[in-house]
Design goal:
Layout: H1 3-17, H2 23-49, H3 54-68, H4 71-83, H5 85-93, H6 95-101, E1 112-116, E2 121-126, H7 135-138, H8 143-146, H9 148-156, H10 158-164, E3 174-179, E4 185-189, H11 201-205, H12 210-214
Helix pairs in contact: 4-5, 5-6, 9-10
Bound molecules: fe (iii) ion.
């Protein structure tokens, strides 16, 4: 048997002898791989466009994810909306252009939609298919956001899932679950907490956490 034949036989046999695993698990893995591949391709294209060479590109990528992309961006957007009603209006009408006013935008944020929490309505975001997420304002998604358990359960029982995050909602509060996609990414505008009158944007941004902008928690005074 040639080396090639052997390799082929091995792969073939392996595929059939693999212990049965939950279907959703292998499906999720391939989804993730596909999404990861797509992300890498997009990033490579972007970096090549900017004329960065390979090593610099890698360093730049790490730097971007550590310092430029992250929930601190979204927190600045929320804080601005809390202090500036005209900005809030623009944010709710066209979030992509509103966040661009603060210098945020680009990859995975092209069609951003902001949804406002009020005493009557609580919004929560999921991607039921994979892990679509508004990178320019929240950075990379947390592991639980990509988990099948969150993705399926938050649709079926949003109040139960929110309770697990410590968020109790009254029966009179309407819960809206927004399913992200490659086309539309959502950002939750949390309610401004009581007791923050007179706070400046920097102080306000400091109490807006990532989870509040996904909608699984509230923004709370520190
Ligand atoms: Fe997705």
């Amino acid at each position: 048997m040639s080396e090639h034949d052997h390799r082929h036989d091995h792969d073939h046999a392996h595929a059939h002898e693999a212990p049965p695993s939950p279907y959703h698990r292998s499906e999720r893995t391939s989804e993730r791989n596909a999404e990861l591949t797509e992300r890498v391709a997009k990033l490579e294209a972007l970096l090549t466009e900017k004329g960065l060479v390979a090593k610099d590109a890698l360093d730049k990528l790490v730097d971007v994810y550590e310092h430029d992309l992250g929930p601190m961006n979204g927190a600045k957007v929320v804080a601005r909306a809390w202090v500036d009603p005209a900005f809030k209006q623009r944010l709710l009408e066209n979030a992509t252009s509103a966040v661009a006013e603060l210098g945020f935008g680009g990859l995975q944020g092209e069609h951003l939609v902001a949804v406002e929490n009020t005493p009557q309505v609580h919004n929560v975001v999921v991607c039921t298919l994979c892990s679509c997420y508004p990178w320019p304002v929240l950075g990379l998604p947390p592991a639980w956001y990509k988990d099948a358990a969150y993705r399926s359960r938050v649709v079926i029982d949003p109040r139960g899932v929110l309770r697990e995050f410590g968020t109790e909602l009254g029966d009179d509060v309407e819960v809206r679950v927004w399913d992200s996609s490659a086309e539309v990414r959502y950002l939750v505008l949390p309610e401004r907490p009581a007791g923050t009158d007179g706070w400046n944007e920097e102080q306000l941004a400091a109490i807006v956490g990532r989870d509040a902008m996904i909608g699984v928690t509230r923004a709370l005074p520190a």
